[in-house]
Design brief:
The complex is a heterodimer of chains A (about 290) and B (about 130). By secondary structure, chain A is of the alpha+beta class. In chain A, about 35% of the residues lie in helices and about 25% in strands. The chains are: A alpha+beta (about 290), B alpha/beta (about 130).
Chain lengths: ~290, ~130
């Protein structure tokens, strides 16, 4: 809540692919510049091996590793670590513009469950978010895995967890009237894939959630079930389709949007930490 | 005999053999299947719940497709005093093993296994699940 929204604004409105990361061995907050240099050398070496992304033009990739102290839940949390890959055009001088080509950051928001149970030399940063070409994510991931003996895994979000997000985010207060709440369902067992998109006016959704939620600030599984069942029965009344027999694959609200393949977009800086807390929890349960 | 929901159509009542075991299938990927089972349970005579009912939860291989909360299923097993079995139909080995288990349970429920009644077997299964 104390995060300066301007400093984290660059994290909004971007599509982030989520990973869970096991604790990093002998990672130090004070050696970030060393890590940047080592990672840069690694990327150059990978390029030599022919695993480069682009062909032809000599690419000079600059690596920056920094800390984002604002993204924390509790004091026990490790400060988030940001890795930036930028492209420096070869024909220009040192002070020329650098184009940001890839962003990745590790974070831990209220990850006490994990950090409390981990031996001393380990740093807990269970959530990793990447934006940019998959090939760079793979190279950066390999370097971290080799250097800190950790393991990256794509974080999938189950329909159950997506419905929690739908309910939680609907309840959040937003300043101005924003986009509709959208739920996307994938219909199973069909010869051709079929997706159903269900859009709900945000005020209607909030009004429904307000009648369901008993204690402000607390959400129970039962309340989430009732909320979703109401939406499903409303849909069934109109279209005679049982959405409960399909798979919820995407939830979009004014706060954020999440896809079951582990893709997230943050839309409100006010709720950034809140969403990260939920994602940290999912990452931790995938690790354990 | 396979049915998508209960009650069974009454027209064929007189042709139907005695029912020894009812296995309710819940697909963990479909909330609808849970609701369907809950609605169908209301049509089952109370005597069946003395060891002649079990819940078969399918689709458990893929945690990321989970649309049904596990607690709801455990609660169902508790409320109806019936065992909960898990399987993954897409894997042949597990499918075959589960079928064999159900067949064994059916033999007991039909009274073909001397010395073991449906009720005693049912409570044995529930007690071992608690452990």
């Amino acid at each position: 809540e104390n995060a300066d929204p301007r400093r984290t604004a660059f994290l909004l409105h971007k599509q982030w692919t989520l990973y869970s990361v096991t604790p990093l061995y002998r990672f130090s907050n004070t050696r970030l510049r060393d890590y940047a240099r080592l990672l840069s050398a690694f990327i150059a070496a990978e390029k030599q091996k022919g695993l480069a992304v682009e062909i032809g033009v000599e690419l000079d990739i600059k690596v920056a590793v920094s800390s984002l102290p604002d993204l924390k839940g509790s004091d026990q949390d490790q400060a988030a670590i940001l890795v930036q890959l930028s492209l420096r055009s070869p024909a220009s001088s040192k002070n020329s513009e650098e184009k940001l080509i890839w962003l990745g950051w590790f974070c831990c928001v209220s990850g006490d469950d994990l950090s409390e149970n981990v031996p001393e030399d380990f740093t807990c940063l269970p959530l990793f978010l990447a934006n940019g070409a998959e090939s760079y994510t793979s190279i950066v991931g390999s370097w971290f895995q080799k250097t800190f003996d950790c393991c990256f895994r794509r974080l999938a979000i189950s329909p159950l967890n997506l419905s929690w997000m739908a309910a939680m985010w609907t309840g959040c207060k937003v300043d101005k009237t924003t986009s509709a709440m959208e739920l996307v369902f994938s219909v199973p067992c069909l010869p051709q894939p079929l997706d159903i998109s269900y859009a709900i006016h945000p005020e209607d959704a909030k009004a429904l959630w307000d009648t369901v939620q008993k204690t402000p600030g607390e959400i129970t599984q039962e309340e989430v079930d009732v909320f979703m069942d109401c939406l499903y029965s409303h849909f069934h009344r109109h279209f005679k389709i049982h959405l409960s027999a399909t798979k919820l694959v995407k939830v979009s609200t004014a706060i954020a949007s999440a896809h079951c393949d582990g893709i997230i977009k943050f839309l409100q800086s006010q709720y950034l930490t809140g969403v990260l807390m939920l994602l940290t929890e999912l990452a931790i349960s995938q690790i354990q | 005999h396979l049915a998508t929901s209960l009650p069974l159509p009454s027209e064929r009542d007189h042709l139907r053999p005695r029912i020894d075991l009812i296995a309710f299938m819940i697909d963990i990927k479909s909330k609808y299947s849970l609701k369907n089972v809950e609605a169908s349970l209301a049509h089952v005579d109370a005597s069946f719940f003395l060891g002649k009912v079990c819940f078969l939860v399918t689709g458990v291989g893929r945690v990321n497709y989970c649309s049904v909360e596990m607690n709801a299923i455990w609660k169902l097993g508790e409320v109806y005093c019936s065992p909960v079995l898990f399987c993954e139909l897409e894997l042949e080995g597990i499918r075959v093993a589960t079928a064999q288990r159900l067949l064994r349970m059916l033999q007991i429920c039909a009274g073909h296994v001397p010395g073991v009644s449906a009720l005693s077997f049912g409570s044995l299964m529930r007690n071992s699940a608690d452990d």
